[in-house]
Amino acid sequence: MNRKSIRNKIIMGISLCLLISISIILTGCGQDKSKSDWEYIKDKGTLVVGLDDTFAPMGFRDENDEIVGFDIDLAKAVGEELGIKVEFKPIDWDAKDGELKSKKIDCVWNGMSWTKDRDKSMSLSYKYMNNKIIVMSADNNINIKDSSELSNYKISTQADSSALDGLKADKNYDKFKDNIKEYKDYAAAYLDMKAGRVDVMVIDKVMGEYTYPELKTSDYIFMDDFYAVGFRKGDKELTAKVNEALKMIMDNGKGKEISQKWFKNDDSFIVKE
């Protein structure tokens, strides 16, 4: 066999391998595209939930380092309704959009506030919970009845939080904005308040009254803060399936049972579609 013949056979072999590889790739891509977002979840049998595991009582670690909370129990109940397993994966909260897009998680479910910006970047469930933004203090003599009164106090809150959004959206923000001090988390804000360096803490009602029950809650409420589950933009079928399961849970009393477990027999937080 001459060199030219050998070279031609090698070239033909390489070409055949390339064609087979391209065919496999295209076939795989075609299969992925043909599957709906819900079929993708059903096929793998698991819904991976991304969360910040420090947000009590929605999702946090107990004394045994187990992830527990209201949203944890609610997600498990939804999984039972849908016939799939639910896996909980702690994430960097600031990177949640990237975690969704890369499919490292399938949804964000952890006391996430419904906002117009998130509605543009994610497919959101219906608003299943109505939280409030409140003012708390270690001084029982402080009772804020109107936000204008905050001009007389040093205010603490968590950076990049719904509570900070509530402060900024308030009609009297210009009167007290210079009094606001932002912290990396509410634990740091709480410690500064206990030390007397700030007077009040603006915080989510569900977290504040669960984590710091010894503090006094003022009469003034900044705003409603609705929670929703966030999915990849375009995952409409999965969002609809979870909405159906949530509605079932709220209607059959399971949602009320979970709420009363975590909020001291108070089920006023839950919202029925």
Compact summary:
The chain has 273 residues and is α/β, with parallel strands linked by helices. It is built from eleven helices and 13 strands. It is elongated and about 75 Å long.
Characterization of this structure:
This protein is of the alpha/beta class. It has 2 domains: 37-128 and 228-262, 3-Layer(aba) Sandwich (D-Maltodextrin-Binding Protein, domain 2); 131-225, D-Maltodextrin-Binding Protein, domain 2 (3-Layer(aba) Sandwich). Helices cover 43% and strands 22% of the residues. It is built from 11 helices and 13 strands. The chain has helices at 3-34, 37-44, 70-82, 96-101, 116-121, 162-169, 173-176, 186-194, 205-211, 236-251, 254-262, and strands spanning 46-51, 54-55, 59-61, 67-68, 85-90, 107-108, 122-124, 129-137, 155-158, 180-183, 200-204, 216-227, 230-232. A 5-stranded mixed beta sheet has the order 5-1-6-13-7. It is elongated and about 75 Å long. 33% of the residues are buried.
The total number of structural domains is 2
CATH first level of the largest domain = Alpha Beta
Radius of gyration: 25 Å
Helix count, DSSP H or I runs of 4 or more residues? 11
| Estimated helix fraction | 40-55%
Question: How confident is the prediction overall: mean pLDDT?
Answer: 89
Strand order of the largest sheet: 5-1-6-13-7
Which second-level CATH architecture of the largest domain applies? 3-Layer(aba) Sandwich
What's the quaternary structure here? single chain
What is the H-and-E element order?
HHEEEEHEHEHEEEHHEHEHEEHH
Largest sheet: 5 strands, mixed
What is the name of the CATH topology of the largest domain? D-Maltodextrin-Binding Protein, domain 2
Low-confidence stretches: 22-31
Quickly give the structural class.
alpha/beta
Shape: elongated
